[in-house]
Amino acid sequence: MNSICILVQNVYDVDVRVRRKAEALASAGYSVDVLALAGPDRKKTYTLNNVVVHTVSLAKKRGSIFRYVFEYIAFFLWAFVRVLLLSRRRRYSVVDVNTLPDFLIFAAVPARWMGAKLVLDMHEITPEFYMSKYNVGANSWLIRFLTYIEKISFDFADSVVAISEPIRDLLVGRGLDPSKAIVVMNSADEARFVSQAPGPPGDKDSNGFRMIYHGTLTRIYGLELAIEAFGIAHKEMPGAEFWILGSGSEKNALANQAERLGLSSKVKLLGQVAPAEIPSWLGKSHVGVLPIHRDEFLEFAFPNKLPEFIIMGKPVLMSRLMTIRHYFSEEAICYFEPDNPEDLAKQMLRLYNDRHLCARLAVRAREEYVPIRWEVMRQRYLDLIASITGFNCSAAEPLRPVESTTVRL
After folding, report:
1. pTM, whole model, 2 decimals?
2. What DSSP element (H or E) covers 119?
3. Per-residue model confidence as pLDDT tens digits over 351-362
4. Given Cys at both, which of 101, 285, 314, 371 links 309, Cβ 3.0 to 4.6 Å?
5. Cα(324)–Cα(271) distance, integer angstroms
6. Which domains, ranges and CATH numbers included, belong to the chain?
7. How many Å apart are CA 284 and CA 353, to the nearest integer?
Protein backbone atom coordinates (compact mmCIF):
# COMPACT_ATOMS: atom_id res chain seq x y z
CA MET A 1 0.00 0.00 0.00
CA ASN A 2 1.28 3.49 -0.87
CA SER A 3 1.90 5.62 2.21
CA ILE A 4 1.45 9.38 2.35
CA CYS A 5 2.57 11.75 5.10
CA ILE A 6 0.94 15.15 5.58
CA LEU A 7 2.55 17.96 7.63
CA VAL A 8 0.47 20.86 8.96
CA GLN A 9 1.19 23.26 11.81
CA ASN A 10 -2.40 23.33 12.95
CA VAL A 11 -4.87 21.16 14.84
CA TYR A 12 -5.84 18.51 12.30
CA ASP A 13 -9.46 18.11 13.41
CA VAL A 14 -10.29 21.77 12.69
CA ASP A 15 -8.20 22.25 9.53
CA VAL A 16 -10.92 21.64 6.95
CA ARG A 17 -8.67 21.75 3.89
CA VAL A 18 -6.13 19.27 5.25
CA ARG A 19 -8.84 16.93 6.52
CA ARG A 20 -10.54 16.89 3.13
CA LYS A 21 -7.27 15.96 1.41
CA ALA A 22 -6.32 13.31 3.96
CA GLU A 23 -9.73 11.66 3.89
CA ALA A 24 -9.80 11.75 0.09
CA LEU A 25 -6.47 9.92 0.07
CA ALA A 26 -7.66 7.36 2.62
CA SER A 27 -10.87 6.71 0.64
CA ALA A 28 -8.74 6.20 -2.48
CA GLY A 29 -6.78 3.42 -0.78
CA TYR A 30 -3.69 5.22 0.49
CA SER A 31 -2.28 4.80 3.99
CA VAL A 32 -2.18 8.30 5.49
CA ASP A 33 -0.24 9.73 8.43
CA VAL A 34 -0.65 13.34 9.54
CA LEU A 35 1.81 15.30 11.72
CA ALA A 36 -0.01 18.18 13.40
CA LEU A 37 -0.56 20.18 16.58
CA ALA A 38 -2.38 18.55 19.48
CA GLY A 39 -5.98 19.54 20.09
CA PRO A 40 -7.56 20.38 23.45
CA ASP A 41 -7.61 16.69 24.43
CA ARG A 42 -3.80 16.49 23.99
CA LYS A 43 -3.93 13.09 22.30
CA LYS A 44 -0.50 12.09 21.04
CA THR A 45 -1.70 9.62 18.41
CA TYR A 46 -5.21 8.79 17.23
CA THR A 47 -7.11 7.59 14.17
CA LEU A 48 -9.90 9.61 12.56
CA ASN A 49 -11.72 8.33 9.48
CA ASN A 50 -8.85 5.97 8.61
CA VAL A 51 -6.24 8.73 8.96
CA VAL A 52 -3.55 8.28 11.64
CA VAL A 53 -2.72 11.57 13.36
CA HIS A 54 0.50 12.18 15.32
CA THR A 55 0.62 15.38 17.38
CA VAL A 56 2.86 17.63 19.42
CA SER A 57 1.65 19.92 22.20
CA LEU A 58 2.62 23.39 21.03
CA ALA A 59 0.07 26.05 21.87
CA LYS A 60 -0.54 28.90 19.45
CA LYS A 61 0.20 32.10 21.34
CA ARG A 62 1.04 34.29 18.40
CA GLY A 63 1.23 38.04 18.49
CA SER A 64 4.77 39.24 17.91
CA ILE A 65 6.87 38.07 15.02
CA PHE A 66 9.29 36.51 17.51
CA ARG A 67 6.55 34.22 18.81
CA TYR A 68 5.78 33.18 15.24
CA VAL A 69 9.45 32.34 14.68
CA PHE A 70 9.63 30.32 17.90
CA GLU A 71 6.54 28.27 17.05
CA TYR A 72 7.64 27.71 13.45
CA ILE A 73 11.09 26.48 14.49
CA ALA A 74 9.78 24.28 17.33
CA PHE A 75 7.27 22.55 15.04
CA PHE A 76 9.84 22.25 12.25
CA LEU A 77 12.32 20.43 14.50
CA TRP A 78 9.65 18.08 15.86
CA ALA A 79 8.34 17.33 12.37
CA PHE A 80 11.86 16.70 11.02
CA VAL A 81 12.55 14.09 13.70
CA ARG A 82 9.11 12.46 13.34
CA VAL A 83 9.43 12.25 9.56
CA LEU A 84 12.85 10.64 9.97
CA LEU A 85 11.56 8.03 12.43
CA LEU A 86 8.34 7.28 10.56
CA SER A 87 10.03 7.12 7.16
CA ARG A 88 12.21 4.24 8.30
CA ARG A 89 9.09 2.14 8.82
CA ARG A 90 6.67 3.58 6.28
CA ARG A 91 8.77 4.49 3.25
CA TYR A 92 6.47 7.29 2.18
CA SER A 93 5.76 7.79 -1.51
CA VAL A 94 4.73 11.42 -0.98
CA VAL A 95 5.01 13.99 1.77
CA ASP A 96 2.38 16.74 1.48
CA VAL A 97 3.55 19.85 3.34
CA ASN A 98 1.03 22.58 4.16
CA THR A 99 2.17 26.13 4.85
CA LEU A 100 2.63 28.28 6.91
CA PRO A 101 5.62 28.36 7.28
CA ASP A 102 6.95 27.87 3.77
CA PHE A 103 10.22 26.40 5.02
CA LEU A 104 8.34 23.50 6.63
CA ILE A 105 9.02 21.72 3.31
CA PHE A 106 12.58 21.12 4.52
CA ALA A 107 11.30 19.06 7.46
CA ALA A 108 10.53 16.41 4.83
CA VAL A 109 14.19 16.04 3.83
CA PRO A 110 14.56 12.62 5.56
CA ALA A 111 11.65 11.25 3.51
CA ARG A 112 13.18 12.63 0.30
CA TRP A 113 16.45 10.86 1.14
CA MET A 114 14.40 7.65 1.17
CA GLY A 115 12.73 8.32 -2.16
CA ALA A 116 9.61 10.33 -1.35
CA LYS A 117 8.35 13.13 -3.59
CA LEU A 118 7.45 16.42 -1.93
CA VAL A 119 4.24 18.40 -2.48
CA LEU A 120 4.08 21.95 -1.10
CA ASP A 121 0.52 23.14 -0.54
CA MET A 122 0.78 26.91 -0.15
CA HIS A 123 -2.22 27.79 1.98
CA GLU A 124 -1.08 31.40 2.29
CA ILE A 125 1.16 33.80 0.40
CA THR A 126 3.60 34.56 3.19
CA PRO A 127 5.02 37.94 2.11
CA GLU A 128 1.54 39.44 1.62
CA PHE A 129 0.35 37.84 4.87
CA TYR A 130 3.01 39.66 6.86
CA MET A 131 2.57 42.88 4.90
CA SER A 132 -1.07 42.82 5.97
CA LYS A 133 -0.52 41.70 9.56
CA TYR A 134 2.33 44.06 10.43
CA ASN A 135 1.68 46.89 7.96
CA VAL A 136 5.14 46.72 6.40
CA GLY A 137 6.08 47.62 2.84
CA ALA A 138 7.09 45.29 0.03
CA ASN A 139 10.65 46.67 0.07
CA SER A 140 11.27 46.06 3.76
CA TRP A 141 14.01 43.60 4.74
CA LEU A 142 11.41 41.29 6.30
CA ILE A 143 9.32 40.97 3.15
CA ARG A 144 12.37 40.53 0.93
CA PHE A 145 13.61 37.79 3.27
CA LEU A 146 10.22 36.04 3.31
CA THR A 147 10.06 36.20 -0.49
CA TYR A 148 13.47 34.53 -0.64
CA ILE A 149 12.35 31.77 1.76
CA GLU A 150 9.20 31.30 -0.31
CA LYS A 151 11.21 30.82 -3.50
CA ILE A 152 13.72 28.32 -2.14
CA SER A 153 10.82 26.42 -0.61
CA PHE A 154 8.80 26.04 -3.80
CA ASP A 155 12.00 25.38 -5.77
CA PHE A 156 12.74 22.47 -3.40
CA ALA A 157 9.29 20.90 -3.84
CA ASP A 158 8.50 18.47 -6.64
CA SER A 159 4.95 19.83 -6.99
CA VAL A 160 3.33 23.01 -5.71
CA VAL A 161 -0.36 23.44 -4.96
CA ALA A 162 -1.88 26.93 -4.99
CA ILE A 163 -5.36 27.69 -3.65
CA SER A 164 -6.42 29.86 -6.60
CA GLU A 165 -5.36 30.80 -10.10
CA PRO A 166 -4.45 34.40 -9.13
CA ILE A 167 -2.13 33.06 -6.42
CA ARG A 168 -0.59 30.56 -8.83
CA ASP A 169 0.04 33.39 -11.29
CA LEU A 170 1.57 35.52 -8.52
CA LEU A 171 3.95 32.70 -7.54
CA VAL A 172 4.89 32.05 -11.16
CA GLY A 173 5.76 35.75 -11.40
CA ARG A 174 8.08 35.24 -8.42
CA GLY A 175 9.90 32.35 -10.06
CA LEU A 176 7.72 29.25 -9.59
CA ASP A 177 8.07 26.77 -12.45
CA PRO A 178 4.58 26.67 -14.04
CA SER A 179 5.03 23.03 -15.03
CA LYS A 180 4.93 21.87 -11.41
CA ALA A 181 2.10 24.13 -10.19
CA ILE A 182 -1.57 23.13 -9.92
CA VAL A 183 -4.59 24.76 -8.29
CA VAL A 184 -6.69 22.97 -5.65
CA MET A 185 -9.18 25.47 -4.30
CA ASN A 186 -10.78 25.85 -0.87
CA SER A 187 -14.12 24.55 -2.07
CA ALA A 188 -16.64 23.25 0.44
CA ASP A 189 -17.54 19.58 0.74
CA GLU A 190 -21.14 19.42 -0.42
CA ALA A 191 -21.71 16.17 1.47
CA ARG A 192 -21.90 18.23 4.67
CA PHE A 193 -24.97 20.02 3.36
CA VAL A 194 -26.98 17.11 1.99
CA SER A 195 -29.05 16.71 5.15
CA GLN A 196 -29.65 19.53 7.58
CA ALA A 197 -29.89 19.41 11.34
CA PRO A 198 -32.97 21.03 12.95
CA GLY A 199 -33.11 24.79 12.55
CA PRO A 200 -32.75 27.40 15.29
CA PRO A 201 -35.29 26.73 18.08
CA GLY A 202 -38.56 28.63 17.81
CA ASP A 203 -37.78 30.20 14.43
CA LYS A 204 -40.80 29.50 12.22
CA ASP A 205 -40.99 32.87 10.46
CA SER A 206 -40.25 32.63 6.74
CA ASN A 207 -41.22 36.23 5.98
CA GLY A 208 -38.30 38.01 7.63
CA PHE A 209 -34.98 38.96 6.15
CA ARG A 210 -32.02 37.42 7.94
CA MET A 211 -28.47 38.18 6.85
CA ILE A 212 -25.78 35.89 8.25
CA TYR A 213 -22.04 35.63 8.77
CA HIS A 214 -20.39 32.51 10.23
CA GLY A 215 -16.74 32.17 11.11
CA THR A 216 -13.96 33.73 13.12
CA LEU A 217 -14.60 37.21 14.52
CA THR A 218 -11.38 39.03 13.64
CA ARG A 219 -10.62 42.43 12.15
CA ILE A 220 -9.85 41.24 8.62
CA TYR A 221 -13.42 40.02 8.05
CA GLY A 222 -14.81 43.56 8.34
CA LEU A 223 -17.80 42.78 10.52
CA GLU A 224 -17.69 46.24 12.08
CA LEU A 225 -18.32 47.61 8.57
CA ALA A 226 -21.32 45.30 8.16
CA ILE A 227 -22.80 46.46 11.47
CA GLU A 228 -22.23 50.08 10.49
CA ALA A 229 -23.91 49.45 7.13
CA PHE A 230 -26.83 47.72 8.82
CA GLY A 231 -27.16 50.75 11.08
CA ILE A 232 -27.51 52.94 8.00
CA ALA A 233 -30.03 50.70 6.26
CA HIS A 234 -32.08 49.02 8.98
CA LYS A 235 -34.81 51.69 9.25
CA GLU A 236 -35.74 50.95 5.63
CA MET A 237 -35.63 47.18 6.25
CA PRO A 238 -38.49 46.31 8.64
CA GLY A 239 -38.03 42.87 10.17
CA ALA A 240 -34.41 42.54 9.02
CA GLU A 241 -31.80 40.97 11.29
CA PHE A 242 -28.08 40.36 11.07
CA TRP A 243 -26.90 37.07 12.60
CA ILE A 244 -23.22 36.65 13.49
CA LEU A 245 -22.10 33.12 14.33
CA GLY A 246 -18.65 32.46 15.75
CA SER A 247 -16.14 33.63 18.31
CA GLY A 248 -12.92 35.59 18.24
CA SER A 249 -11.03 38.63 19.43
CA GLU A 250 -13.58 41.12 18.03
CA LYS A 251 -16.70 39.69 19.65
CA ASN A 252 -16.93 42.18 22.53
CA ALA A 253 -16.15 45.15 20.28
CA LEU A 254 -18.87 44.09 17.84
CA ALA A 255 -21.40 43.67 20.64
CA ASN A 256 -20.51 47.13 21.99
CA GLN A 257 -20.84 48.65 18.53
CA ALA A 258 -24.28 47.11 18.03
CA GLU A 259 -25.41 48.42 21.42
CA ARG A 260 -24.03 51.89 20.71
CA LEU A 261 -25.99 52.02 17.43
CA GLY A 262 -29.18 50.80 19.10
CA LEU A 263 -29.07 47.52 17.17
CA SER A 264 -28.75 44.98 19.99
CA SER A 265 -32.15 43.45 19.22
CA LYS A 266 -31.38 43.17 15.49
CA VAL A 267 -27.67 42.32 15.40
CA LYS A 268 -27.48 38.92 17.11
CA LEU A 269 -24.07 37.60 18.12
CA LEU A 270 -24.97 33.96 18.55
CA GLY A 271 -21.58 32.59 19.58
CA GLN A 272 -19.68 29.55 18.42
CA VAL A 273 -21.73 26.95 16.57
CA ALA A 274 -20.69 23.35 15.95
CA PRO A 275 -19.76 22.74 12.28
CA ALA A 276 -22.55 20.16 11.97
CA GLU A 277 -25.09 22.86 12.87
CA ILE A 278 -23.94 25.41 10.29
CA PRO A 279 -26.13 24.10 7.43
CA SER A 280 -29.31 24.45 9.48
CA TRP A 281 -28.46 28.04 10.41
CA LEU A 282 -27.71 28.88 6.80
CA GLY A 283 -30.98 27.25 5.82
CA LYS A 284 -32.88 29.69 8.07
CA SER A 285 -31.11 32.75 6.64
CA HIS A 286 -31.74 34.72 3.46
CA VAL A 287 -28.41 36.37 2.54
CA GLY A 288 -24.77 35.64 3.32
CA VAL A 289 -22.49 38.58 4.21
CA LEU A 290 -18.70 38.63 3.66
CA PRO A 291 -17.47 42.20 4.23
CA ILE A 292 -13.73 41.41 4.03
CA HIS A 293 -11.32 44.34 4.14
CA ARG A 294 -9.04 45.03 1.17
CA ASP A 295 -5.25 44.98 1.34
CA GLU A 296 -2.31 43.28 -0.43
CA PHE A 297 -3.12 39.95 1.19
CA LEU A 298 -6.90 39.99 1.26
CA GLU A 299 -7.18 40.77 -2.45
CA PHE A 300 -6.24 37.10 -2.85
CA ALA A 301 -8.72 35.78 -0.29
CA PHE A 302 -11.17 33.01 -1.13
CA PRO A 303 -13.01 32.25 2.14
CA ASN A 304 -14.52 28.81 2.78
CA LYS A 305 -17.75 30.54 3.77
CA LEU A 306 -18.42 31.73 0.21
CA PRO A 307 -18.93 28.26 -1.33
CA GLU A 308 -20.97 27.23 1.72
CA PHE A 309 -23.41 30.07 1.06
CA ILE A 310 -23.53 29.15 -2.62
CA ILE A 311 -24.16 25.45 -1.98
CA MET A 312 -27.03 26.39 0.34
CA GLY A 313 -28.59 28.56 -2.37
CA LYS A 314 -28.04 31.90 -0.62
CA PRO A 315 -27.19 35.14 -2.43
CA VAL A 316 -23.97 36.66 -1.13
CA LEU A 317 -23.03 40.25 -0.26
CA MET A 318 -19.28 40.27 -0.87
CA SER A 319 -16.42 42.75 -1.00
CA ARG A 320 -15.26 43.31 -4.58
CA LEU A 321 -11.89 41.55 -4.24
CA MET A 322 -9.64 40.41 -7.07
CA THR A 323 -9.74 36.65 -6.57
CA ILE A 324 -13.50 36.53 -6.03
CA ARG A 325 -14.03 38.60 -9.19
CA HIS A 326 -11.79 36.14 -11.05
CA TYR A 327 -14.27 33.32 -10.39
CA PHE A 328 -17.65 35.02 -10.01
CA SER A 329 -19.34 37.63 -12.18
CA GLU A 330 -21.47 40.61 -11.19
CA GLU A 331 -24.49 38.46 -12.08
CA ALA A 332 -23.53 35.87 -9.45
CA ILE A 333 -22.44 37.93 -6.43
CA CYS A 334 -23.86 41.15 -5.01
CA TYR A 335 -20.58 43.06 -4.79
CA PHE A 336 -19.87 46.23 -2.88
CA GLU A 337 -16.75 48.35 -2.63
CA PRO A 338 -14.47 47.11 0.19
CA ASP A 339 -14.26 49.27 3.31
CA ASN A 340 -17.32 51.25 2.20
CA PRO A 341 -20.24 50.84 4.63
CA GLU A 342 -22.43 53.22 2.62
CA ASP A 343 -22.14 51.04 -0.49
CA LEU A 344 -22.75 47.91 1.58
CA ALA A 345 -25.89 49.50 3.07
CA LYS A 346 -27.08 50.31 -0.46
CA GLN A 347 -26.62 46.68 -1.52
CA MET A 348 -28.38 45.40 1.59
CA LEU A 349 -31.41 47.49 0.65
CA ARG A 350 -31.18 46.32 -2.94
CA LEU A 351 -31.46 42.67 -1.91
CA TYR A 352 -34.08 43.37 0.75
CA ASN A 353 -36.32 45.04 -1.83
CA ASP A 354 -35.85 42.53 -4.63
CA ARG A 355 -36.26 38.87 -3.68
CA HIS A 356 -36.28 37.87 -7.35
CA LEU A 357 -32.80 39.38 -7.67
CA CYS A 358 -31.74 37.29 -4.66
CA ALA A 359 -32.94 34.15 -6.42
CA ARG A 360 -31.20 35.03 -9.70
CA LEU A 361 -27.90 35.72 -7.95
CA ALA A 362 -28.06 32.44 -6.03
CA VAL A 363 -28.77 30.38 -9.15
CA ARG A 364 -26.05 32.08 -11.22
CA ALA A 365 -23.48 31.69 -8.43
CA ARG A 366 -24.27 27.99 -8.26
CA GLU A 367 -23.70 27.67 -12.01
CA GLU A 368 -20.38 29.51 -11.87
CA TYR A 369 -19.29 27.43 -8.88
CA VAL A 370 -19.66 24.09 -10.69
CA PRO A 371 -16.15 24.08 -12.32
CA ILE A 372 -14.44 24.68 -8.95
CA ARG A 373 -16.58 22.58 -6.62
CA TRP A 374 -14.87 20.20 -4.21
CA GLU A 375 -15.58 17.07 -6.27
CA VAL A 376 -13.54 18.59 -9.10
CA MET A 377 -10.78 19.78 -6.77
CA ARG A 378 -10.72 16.43 -4.96
CA GLN A 379 -10.18 14.52 -8.18
CA ARG A 380 -7.53 17.00 -9.30
CA TYR A 381 -5.61 16.44 -6.07
CA LEU A 382 -5.94 12.64 -6.30
CA ASP A 383 -4.76 12.78 -9.92
CA LEU A 384 -1.68 14.70 -8.82
CA ILE A 385 -0.82 12.12 -6.15
CA ALA A 386 -1.52 9.24 -8.56
CA SER A 387 0.80 10.80 -11.15
CA ILE A 388 3.57 10.83 -8.54
CA THR A 389 3.00 7.39 -7.02
CA GLY A 390 1.68 5.48 -10.02
CA PHE A 391 -1.01 4.10 -7.67
CA ASN A 392 -4.36 3.21 -9.26
CA CYS A 393 -6.98 5.39 -7.56
CA SER A 394 -9.92 3.31 -8.76
CA ALA A 395 -11.09 3.11 -5.14
CA ALA A 396 -11.76 6.83 -5.16
CA GLU A 397 -15.41 7.83 -5.27
CA PRO A 398 -16.51 9.04 -8.73
CA LEU A 399 -17.58 12.59 -9.37
CA ARG A 400 -21.25 13.17 -8.64
CA PRO A 401 -23.28 15.51 -10.84
CA VAL A 402 -24.37 18.74 -9.21
CA GLU A 403 -28.08 18.70 -8.60
CA SER A 404 -30.20 21.72 -9.27
CA THR A 405 -30.72 23.98 -6.28
CA THR A 406 -34.07 25.18 -5.05
CA VAL A 407 -33.65 28.71 -3.78
CA ARG A 408 -35.82 29.52 -0.76
CA LEU A 409 -36.03 33.17 0.20
Report:
1. 0.85
2. strand 117-122
3. 999 999 999 999
4. 314
5. 27
6. 3-187+373-389 (3.40.50.2000), 191-369 (3.40.50.2000)
7. 19
